[in-house]
Design goal:
Layout (H helix, E strand, L loop, with lengths): L2 H35 L3 H7 L7 H24 L4 H21 L7 H12 L5 H21 L2 H8 L4 H5 L4 H101 L1 H28 L3 H5 L2 H16 L2 E6 L8 H20 L5 E8 L3 E8 L11 H12 L3 E5 L4 E8 L4
Parallel strand pairs: 1-2
Antiparallel strand pairs: 2-3, 3-5, 4-5
Helix pairs in contact: 1-3, 1-5, 1-9, 3-4, 4-5, 5-6, 5-9, 9-10, 12-13, 13-14
């Protein structure tokens, strides 16, 4: 069911309650006039416990108090207020409902059902957990209020005139007709109340189903995005491999080819013309040095941008801060290697290992905090990276871990993993010359 239908039923209930309250007030007014015209006042006074108020005042009280209630309900429903002001408006509605209840001399309590419906449709967007308590308490209060706000229970204490007492002065046919209309209107109000409650339940169920469908669609789209990201990453890795292979082929391949040809020439010349062989070796040496220079240029192109402008410690701090700012993860970084001057290859590998590990902590471990410690012993350097993410019983090496191990092999390093209480990566690589 759409919410607009519930709103229309609410408008119908507001109109119906106006008809009921006006009808009750009009009955007091017209029947009193009938009693006066037929000189039955003394009999009425002996029947009632006290002298009744003016029926015209009673009728005006009904109309004015209900008009105020509708005005407050309109303001409450169509305008946004703070929580405190909204609560005050609802309390005002509740007070006006009691004013109407006493204005009709306790002969109609269906007004409290209208207040509950207004509360139900106004606060329809309450959080789920809070709404259980809210509606449970509110429903209980209104149920007790509706059950005990009955003339047969309260009329004796407040000595209010009963409408039935007035109806007894009318002819049988007129009395029966009015009783029928009174009961019909009261029953119609109760049926409308039940229909709105049932419609609201259906509306909530439909909305829950819609939300679940959207969440399922979002999850499906998220899975597709992950697959696309993995494919894109794989394509980027393949392109990078091809570029590196091409650069190495153009530098190392050409250099080694020239060196091989030069050595073949030296082998021929060494016995025939030693001086020419020496000259050829000089050329080979120059070609080898040039090749080494070009290889270094290729490696420098692969070097992280941060390491080109900063020290290793500063580059790592900068990179970790960027991760922390983007993902709001807390990273504790303790760099205990001091002023050690690592080779560029070693710096590159350390940087990439930490970068890969932090990425895995976010992507796979869903960690909220990471601890990174750089320590050392007499013979080796130790890098410890621990996160509070989910633990993995069985670690399946993927592309990232495989690349990490291959990189560390270049500097004779090793890596170990511990999945107890989060996930820990421990890297060790030897000190040069020890």
């Amino acid at each position: 069911m759409k919410f607009k239908y519930l709103v229309r039923m609410r408008h119908f209930m507001i109109t119906l309650n106006f008809i009921i309250i006006s009808f009750i007030g009009a009955q007091f007014l017209l029947i009193t006039q009938y009693i006066l015209n037929h000189q039955l006042s003394s009999e009425l006074l002996t029947t009632l416990a006290q002298v009744p108020d003016s029926p015209l005042i009673l009728f005006n009280e009904c109309i004015i108090s209900y008009a105020l209630l509708v005005l407050v309900m309109y303001i409450h429903y169509h305008y946004n207020f703070s929580t405190q002001n909204t609560l005050l408006l609802f309390v005002l509605e509740f007070i006006l409902a009691f004013v109407i209840f006493f204005a009709v001399r306790m002969n109609y309590n269906g007004i409290f059902l209208l207040i509950f419906i207004d509360l139900l449709l106004t606060y329809r967007n309450l959080p789920t957990i809070q709404s259980y308590w809210f509606w449970g308490i509110s429903g209980t209060i209104f149920l007790l209020l509706f059950s005990f706000s009955n003339y047969s229970l309260l009329g004796v204490f407040f000595k209010m005139p009963s409408l039935n007492t007035y109806l007894d002065f009318l002819p049988t046919q007129s009395r029966s007709l009015l009783v029928f209309f009174n009961n019909f209107l009261v029953s119609l109000n109760l049926i409308t109340f039940i229909c709105i409650c049932l419609g609201y339940v259906i509306y909530i169920l439909n909305r829950t189903h819609t939300v679940q469908s959207k969440l399922h669609s979002m999850q499906k789209a998220n899975d597709e995005l992950k697959s696309y990201a993995a494919i894109s990453e794989k394509i980027a890795q393949d392109h990078e491999r091809k570029r590196i292979a091409r650069d190495i082929h153009d530098t190392v391949g050409h250099t080694l080819t020239g060196v091989a040809a030069g050595i073949d020439a030296v082998m021929v010349l060494i016995d025939i013309n030693p001086e020419a062989a020496k000259t050829q070796l000089q050329k080979i040496s120059t070609a080898v040095k040039q090749g080494i220079k070009e290889v270094r240029q290729v490696l420098n192109q692969m070097r992280p941008d941060a390491l080109k402008s900063y020290t290793l410690e500063s580059a790592l701090s900068k990179m970790l801060k960027e991760y922390s700012d983007i993902s709001h993860i807390k990273i504790d970084f303790n760099y205990g290697w001091g002023e050690v001057n690592f080779q560029k290859t070693t710096e590159n590998i350390i940087f990439r290992v930490i970068e890969e590990t932090v990425t895995n902590s976010l992507r796979h471990g869903h960690a909220t905090r990471i601890w990174i410690k750089c320590t050392s012993t007499n013979s080796c350097y130790i890098l410890s990276i621990h996160n509070n993410g989910k633990s993995e019983t069985h670690i399946k090496p993927g592309y990232g871990i495989t690349q990490m191990k291959e990189r560390l092999t270049i500097i004779n390093g090793t890596v170990e993993f511990d999945s107890k209480k989060g996930f820990t990566t421990i890297v060790k690589f030897p000190k040069v010359g020890v």
